[in-house]
Specification:
mainly alpha; two-stranded antiparallel sheet; 9 helices; 2 strands
């Protein structure tokens, strides 16, 4: 029981330190749900002589930067996917919606896949916005931490 109390305390602390600062991006994430959060740079005839490249929305890049520097990042996120058999967005959504305090690290792993994985495979940043993954994880983390705070009162 003491271990649960310690874990709950850690979750609440991490929530206040790392998750709450990301809430300022919430309206933007809701407004752009289903969109890619990027445009392709094709000005000045670049497409004729070169490849066009993505230009990310400044709010998305700022969200990625802040989330990437937070304690929420888990460099071992591939293990979250292999351990839980996550293969697509439906699997991720199922885990997110049923997640409780015990699955806090799985939520961190899903968020990390899109933030850290996007550094190698940039399409993941856009995919996180389009599939509403960022928003769903933040909402679920808020619900979990709020529930734990109410239990402790």
């Amino acid at each position: 029981m003491e271990q649960d109390a310690g874990m709950n305390e850690k979750i609440i602390r991490e929530y206040h330190e790392a998750v709450e600062p990301l809430f300022r991006f919430w309206p933007w994430l809701e407004q752009h749900a289903g969109e890619t959060g990027q445009t392709l740079f094709e000005e000045q005839g670049i497409a004729e002589h070169s490849l066009s490249f993505p230009v990310y929305d400044p709010m998305l890049t700022q969200f990625i930067r802040e989330a990437g520097q937070s304690s929420l990042m888990d460099r071992n996120y591939p293990y979250v996917y292999s351990r839980n058999g996550l293969r697509d967005h439906a699997d991720e959504r199922a885990l997110i919606t049923k997640a409780g305090p015990e699955e806090w690290d799985q939520l961190r792993g899903i968020l990390s896949r899109y933030v850290l994985g996007g550094r190698v495979k940039a399409m993941l940043w856009s995919e996180g916005v389009k599939a509403c993954t960022y928003l769903l994880v933040l909402k679920r983390m808020k619900e979990i931490a709020t529930g734990l705070e109410q239990e402790n009162e």
